[in-house]
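Exercise 7b. Backbone tokens:
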């Protein structure tokens, strides 16, 4: 259920009107619902039930420490892709022993810090990374817990930029080489093989790709058994899609069921790394119409949010529903391109949207909780917007709007 709903013609986040948020905190602003974040995480966790499991929220989807803290309190694990994300998890009260570390380019310092913190697992993405990890662990006199990220060559049927499980992608170890790399790992004195991992892409709206990937992994697990390599866990990655534009992703419980059914009787721990599915629909980007501009060819609504705040439309043709915050309007319904002030043609939040607009109107760009703020930049010297967490009737400022001085922080003149 969405906590972003109209009450008496005004869009609310839980118990707070977005009009009130705009007048107190200004626009643009990211607004999240605590209830939705919690209930989405719980749907994964409770569907996994008695099956030994750990839901490792993918930090890169939304890494605000308040979001991480809310999930840490529920007992969440975390999937990280950098030392910076580990720092955030620790700041937020997350448990290092529930952290898995993915990513194709782990540096030595990142490995060493993670080993010292005692993370649960390194998801190793190539044979040279394994060699480096063994050396770093030996230097620290530690055993590095390892899963190999295997690329099952499954087509996730998603946008090419967010597809990761095809053999031409940079991610993971090719399925046909995986066994050989496991055999190498077995011979390394400071590597402790604990599992296997795959992540085939993002915004996946069918169950088959997940089932295909898992079946592929099970074949590998059986082959490894014959080599006396026993795995303690299977990490199925993230990737479950959400509804942006009439998409009908499987329910979280149905997704979990396909995985637990496929694994019946295997006696392994299941890890999953959902990001978007937990936070995507739990956030909106609140923005204000600055200008209406009718050219001979197009009607533009120029808003105060831009591609630097939400890059998904420009980067992967991401589609976000755009709603008036105050439902009724006397303006004519017109097709608008909703664009930001940035000097790039790619700076749009939505095209061809039929909206009734006047200057000063508030809009909510929906489903912006994942890959929104985390991908924001200061391009065009625009301070990053504030982030707010609504919890019932309460509003928490979880990140202040950046100031003009923040923009030049750390810069200096040549002396
Ligand atoms: C991005 C990513 C995820 C999360 O993907 P979602 O589509 O947001 O669920 C999980 N695991 C890895 C390795 C990733 O790179």
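Sequence design result:
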């Amino acid at each position: 259920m969405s906590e972003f709903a109209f009450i008496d013609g005004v869009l609310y986040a839980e118990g707070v009107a977005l009009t009130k948020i705009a007048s107190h905190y200004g626009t643009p602003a990211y607004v999240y619902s605590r209830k939705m974040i919690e209930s989405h995480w719980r749907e994964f966790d409770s569907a996994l039930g008695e099956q030994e499991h750990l839901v490792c929220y993918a930090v890169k989807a939304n890494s605000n420490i308040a979001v991480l803290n809310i999930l840490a309190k529920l007992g969440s694990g975390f999937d990280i892709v950098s030392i910076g994300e580990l720092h955030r998890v620790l700041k937020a009260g997350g448990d290092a022993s529930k952290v898995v570390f993915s990513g194709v380019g782990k540096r030595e310092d990142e490995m060493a810090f993670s080993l010292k913190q005692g993370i649960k697992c390194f998801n190793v993405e190539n044979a040279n990374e394994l060699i480096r990890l063994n050396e770093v662990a030996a230097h620290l006199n530690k055993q590095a817990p390892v899963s190999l990220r295997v690329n099952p060559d499954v087509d996730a049927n998603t946008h090419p930029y967010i597809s990761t499980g095809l053999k031409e992608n940079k991610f993971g170890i090719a399925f046909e080489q995986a066994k050989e790399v496991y055999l190498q790992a077995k011979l390394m004195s400071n590597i402790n093989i604990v599992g296997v991992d795959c992540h085939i892409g993002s915004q996946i709206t069918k169950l088959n790709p997940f089932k295909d990937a898992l079946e592929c992994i099970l074949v590998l697990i059986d082959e490894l058994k014959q080599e006396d390599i026993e795995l303690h866990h299977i990490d199925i990655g993230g990737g479950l899609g959400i509804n942006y534009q009439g998409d009908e992703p499987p329910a979280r419980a149905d997704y979990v069921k396909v995985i637990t059914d496929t694994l019946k009787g295997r006696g392994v721990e299941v890890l999953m790394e959902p990001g978007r599915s937990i936070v995507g629909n739990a956030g909106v980007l609140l923005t204000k119409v600055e200008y209406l501009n009718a050219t001979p060819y197009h009607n533009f609504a120029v808003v105060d949010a831009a591609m630097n705040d939400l890059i998904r439309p420009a980067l992967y043709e991401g589609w976000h529903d755009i709603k008036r915050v105050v439902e009724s309007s006397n303006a004519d319904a017109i097709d608008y391109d909703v664009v930001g002030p940035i000097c790039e043609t790619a700076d749009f939040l939505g095209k061809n949207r039929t909206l009734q607009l006047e200057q000063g109107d508030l809009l909510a760009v929906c489903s912006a909780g994942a890959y929104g703020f985390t991908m924001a930049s200061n391009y065009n010297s625009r301070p990053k917007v504030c982030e707010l967490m609504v919890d019932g009737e309460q509003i928490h400022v979880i990140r202040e709007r950046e100031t003009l001085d923040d923009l030049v922080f750390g810069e200096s003149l040549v002396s």
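Instructor comment: Residues 58, 60-61, 79, 102, 199, 202, 237-240, 273-277, 370 surround pyridoxal-5'-phosphate (CB under 6 Å). The radius of gyration is 23 Å.
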